[in-house]
Amino acid sequence: MLDLVLPPRAFDGGPALSSGLSSEAWSKVTFLDDPVCDGCGAAQPFDTGAVQHCPLCLARPRAFARARAACVYDEHSRDLILKLKHADRTDLSGLFARWLSRAAAPLLDEADAIAPVPMHPGRLLRRRYNQAAEIARPLAGLSGARYLPDALVRRRDTVSQGGKSAVGRRRNVAAAFVVPETRRHQVIGRKVVLVDDVLTTGATAEGCARALMAAGAARVTLAVVARVTEQHAHPI
Ligand SMILES: [Zn+2]
Questions:
Q1: Are strands 191-199 and 177-178 parallel, antiparallel or unpaired?
Q2: How far lies 193's CA from each of 143, 160, 216, in Å?
Q3: Ligand 1 centre and the CA of 149: distance in Å?
Q4: Distance 43 CA to ligand 1 centre (A)
Q5: Which helix (H) or strand (E) holds 124?
Q6: 12 CA distance to ligand 1 centroid (A)?
Q7: 57 CA to middle of ligand 1, Å?
Q8: DSSP letter (8 states) at residue 117
Q9: pLDDT tens-place string over residues 96-112
Q10: From the CA of 74, how far away is ligand 1's center (Å)?
């Protein structure tokens, strides 16, 4: 189990190299282990031995059936994710994929296909790569599920929605995602794991899940590297 989580080699306080990161950086990440909410991946206080759902998921079930996150989104995991996002550290994506192959194992075991949350084409041009796709591709390789890089399309750029309420975000992304007619055959009847780097309100992932279900997917679940908790509400 540790082989999946630890980098190939641990570097004592040294600079992060290739697919690894320093043991100091690694030791500060708060990994999410059972018990977690089956619906959103949030840490739960007690291990009941049964499938659990947190009060939020009980009150309002998500558009995705299940979710898992590898770690808590805090200042430490944020540093790593921002490195992948903005500093061309695409080597980190292999590490994140290994984290997810463990944290999202229950979802991957039942999955037929893996799809990244898509980036708006304009943003993709500026940034040159979609960090969700960089994580989803090696994860598909590790899990054996079919990789669907372009089953989902982002019609509107909804990333810059800081300051909006959860309801406002949901409205904003409601019609942002679609499965093009020509790609429906990739998702019809399939159990799809959606992959993203960070889960905040879940509005983006729910927009994607609704689009996949509308296109005929049998089931949509969500695997994210890090999830925001109430105690760690950092702006992205
Ligand atoms: Zn939950």
A1: unpaired
A2: 11, 24, 14
A3: 27
A4: 9
A5: helix 121-127
A6: 36
A7: 4
A8: P
A9: 999 999 999 999 999 99
A10: 18
pTM of the model: 0.85
The pLDDT of residue 2 is above 60:
no
* Structure tokens given for 174: 């409601």
Q: How far apart are CA 230 and CA 169, in angstroms?
A: 17
Ligand 1 centroid to Cα of residue 152, in Å, is 25
CA angle at residue 214 from 171 to 134, to 5 degrees? 80
In angstroms, what is the span from residue 5 Cα to ligand 1's centroid? 24
If you measure from the C-alpha of residue 200 to the centroid of ligand 1, how many angstroms do you get, rounded to a whole number? 12
Task: For residue 154, give the 3-state DSSP assignment.
Answer: strand
**Count of residues making up the chain:** 236
> Model confidence over 62-97: pLDDT tens digits?
999 999 999 999 999 998 898 888 777 778 899 999
